[in-house]
Design a protein that fits this description.
The protein has seven helices and nine strands, in the order βαββαβαβαββααβαβ. It is of the alpha/beta class. The chain has one domain: Rossmann fold, CATH 3.40.50.720. Helix 1 crosses helix 7, helix 2 packs parallel to helix 3 and helix 3 packs parallel to helix 4. The longest helix has 29 residues. It is globular, with a radius of gyration of 18 Å. The mean pLDDT is about 95.
């Protein structure tokens, strides 16, 4: 499969989880993928090259994109998969933890988009693919800081679509449900209500990182050439509505 042949793509958070799955899918489709993460731990064969990047570091964000353009001549897509879990009720929330969540999940996304836009504006083309969450589309008990950051990512992406569409740059946001990644297991495996969370997905299961990568491939490819400003739930029906078990009588 070479449907992304000739494309140069940057994936943040590429050492594991959704980022790693996106890097692998893009590589399998023929793209040149530069992965980045806070640790130098690339997935074997998933990236053409791998760089260390803390997405909160503006200077490093600039350096990484400059290196990509110097080595490959262009940047066709960026996927902002770097992120951290956080939450808690507001009256118990530590301010430093709130800020850490906003800095990585929201400000880090903004900086990744900011520096990708330079070469994309010169090319008059590009695809910015942000990764938010279903928790950026609706509230979730105990999700305060994470929900706020991911909600910000959703609206930031819509603004990018408004601001840069006339330059041929598309911006779309993937909103995953609960996806089985290392971050998921670190949080959800210890929850006594994990089954209730699973059952809110109308397909009756948690998602896989490869399923998010499939959506990212669509948004990076020419198949989505007329798609911009979308917040796309990839969530097994999590945000489709409330389920009370009524359909169990006929399914």
């Amino acid at each position: 499969m070479t449907r992304l042949a000739g494309k140069v793509m940057h994936v943040t958070g590429a050492a594991s989880g959704i980022g790693a799955a996106c890097a692998k899918r893009f590589t399998d489709e023929g793209a040149v993928v530069i992965g980045s993460d806070v640790v130098d731990a690339p997935v074997d064969g998933a990236c053409a090259s791998f760089v260390e990047l803390d997405v909160r570091d503006e200077g490093r964000q600039r350096e990484v994109v400059e290196r990509i353009v110097d080595e490959h001549g262009r940047l066709d897509a960026v996927v902002t998969a770097a992120g951290v879990a956080s939450g808690g009720p507001v009256h118990l929330l530590d301010l430093d933890e709130w800020q850490r969540c906003q800095d990585i999940n929201l400000t880090g996304t903004m900086l990744s988009a900011k520096y990708a836009l330079g070469p994309m504006l010169e090319q008059r083309s590009g695809s910015i693919i942000t990764v938010a969450s279903v928790e950026g589309l609706e509230g979730c008990e105990g999700g305060s800081s994470y929900n706020a950051a991911k909600g910000g990512v959703v609206l930031l992406t819509k603004n990018l679509a408004n601001d840069y569409g006339r330059a041929g740059i598309r911006a779309n946001c993937i909103c995953p449900g609960f996806i089985q990644t290392p971050m998921f297991h670190a949080v959800v495996d210890h929850m006594p209500w994990a089954d209730k969370i699973r059952d809110q997905h109308k397909l009756g299961r948690f998602g896989e990182a490869s399923e998010i990568a499939g959506a990212a491939f669509f948004l990076a490819s020419d198949d989505s050439s007329f798609v911009t400003g979308v917040a796309l739930p990839v969530d097994g029906g999590y945000v489709a509505g409330h389920s009370y078990g009524i359909s169990e009588h006929w399914t």
